[in-house]
């Protein structure tokens, strides 16, 4: 009996450190993410993006688990009114420095180049005219489309591709990305990606968050899926077809926003944009700007 008791005591002593080790690990866990951990997530996103480029298609909709630790506070984007001495919005440079590690772009390099982007939520009859102007002026653009738009306007999307423009991912159903859990947010990007790939044999690489709403987590998610998140450094109130300001005012507005590395967000539902696009291109070139392809 004494021998049995001794064996039991020895067994308990051997097991005790194992239990303590587990308890200590649990007590030491934290929801806070350090700067070092945040950088590690960005590095992992780099690896995933590199793998994505090799595959040529979106990765699985199951997102990396470590993204859960990143801040998901919703932020809205607008370039603001404060500009530097070169007319470049100050907020764009600040956000570029802060979120560039997640392959997000708010403004491009400080050179005499301009990048045109159009958001396509629904068709209002002006996209063909916009494409005509771009073709005449030999200007490339990015068209960010949703599933509904691509499904209803197959010929227009095919024309965008055929004429050398970039078709970008604007999500499947146009939700506010930070309001979704990681799995659903991932599906918004990958489902759209696969739809365009399957139906147009085209691989998208640029993502514009619906409504410009994002979080650190959703930027990292897009990057992990091989995407660059594209915002803008110029936009104006052009999205309501019932509240167009008129071609003259709209022309002056977009010209006044010219700056190096500008990413223009224009809505294709705007009658004003369709009318002023050609003259705007001419004036920008007159001022020494080159229209470049964002890809």
Which helices and strands, and how do they pair?
Elements: H1 2-27, H2 35-55, H3 90-99, E1 104-105, E2 113-120, H4 127-137, E3 141-145, H5 147-152, H6 154-162, E4 166-169, H7 182-200, E5 206-207, H8 216-224, E6 228-230, H9 247-256, E7 262-267, H10 271-286, E8 290-291
Parallel strand pairs: 1-6, 2-3, 2-7, 2-8, 3-4, 5-6
Instruction: Give the helices and strands as they follow along the chain.
Output: HHHEEHEHHEHEHEHEHE
The average pLDDT is 85
The whole-angstrom Rg is 25 Å
Oligomer: single chain
pLDDT < 50 stretches:
1-59
Q: Count the domains.
A: 1
Cα end-to-end separation: 79 Å
Strand percent estimate: 5-15%
Give the tally of β-strands: 8
Written description of the protein model:
With 295 residues, the chain is an alpha/beta fold. It has a single domain (40-51, 79-291), classed as TIM Barrel, CATH 3.20.20.370. The protein contains 10 helices and 8 strands. It has helices spanning 2-27, 35-55, 90-99, 127-137, 147-152, 154-162, 182-200, 216-224, 247-256, 271-286; strands at residues 104-105, 113-120, 141-145, 166-169, 206-207, 228-230, 262-267, 290-291. The strands form 2 sheets. Strands 2, 3, 4, 7 and 8 form a 5-stranded parallel sheet that branches. It has a 3-stranded parallel sheet with strand order 1-6-5. Strand 2 (113-120), helix 4 and strand 3 form a beta-alpha-beta unit. The longest helix has 26 residues, at 2-27. It is globular. It starts with a helix and ends with a strand. 38% of the residues are buried. The model is unreliable at 1-59 (pLDDT under 50).
């Amino acid at each position: 009996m004494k021998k049995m008791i001794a064996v039991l005591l020895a067994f308990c002593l051997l097991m005790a450190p194992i239990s303590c080790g587990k308890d200590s690990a649990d007590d030491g866990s934290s929801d806070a993410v350090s700067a070092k951990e945040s950088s590690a997530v960005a590095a992992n996103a780099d690896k995933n993006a590199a793998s994505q480029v090799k595959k040529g298609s979106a990765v699985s909709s199951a997102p990396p688990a470590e993204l859960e630790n990143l801040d998901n506070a919703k932020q809205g984007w607008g370039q603001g009114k404060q500009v530097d001495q070169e007319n470049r919005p100050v907020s764009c440079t600040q956000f570029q420095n802060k979120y560039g590690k997640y392959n997000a772009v708010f403004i491009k390099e400080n050179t005499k180049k301009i990048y045109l982007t159009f958001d396509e939520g629904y068709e209002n009859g002006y996209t063909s005219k916009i494409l005509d102007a771009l073709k005449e002026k030999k200007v490339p653009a990015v068209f960010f489309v949703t599933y509904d738009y691509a499904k209803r306007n197959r010929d227009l999307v095919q024309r965008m591709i055929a004429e050398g423009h970039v078709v970008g991912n604007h999500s499947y159903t146009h939700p506010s990305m930070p309001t979704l859990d990681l799995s659903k947010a991932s599906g918004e990007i990958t489902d759209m990606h696969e739809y365009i790939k399957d139906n147009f044999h085209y691989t998208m690489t640029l993502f514009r968050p619906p409504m410009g709403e994002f979080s650190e987590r959703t930027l990292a998610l897009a990057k992990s899926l091989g995407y660059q998140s594209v915002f803008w450094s110029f936009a104006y109130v052009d999205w309501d077809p019932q509240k167009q300001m008129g071609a003259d005012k709209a022309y002056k507005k977009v010209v006044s926003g010219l700056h190096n590395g500008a990413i223009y967000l224009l809505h294709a539902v705007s009658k004003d944009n369709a009318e002023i696009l050609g003259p705007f291109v001419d004036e920008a070139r007159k001022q020494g700007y080159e229209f470049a392809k964002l890809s």
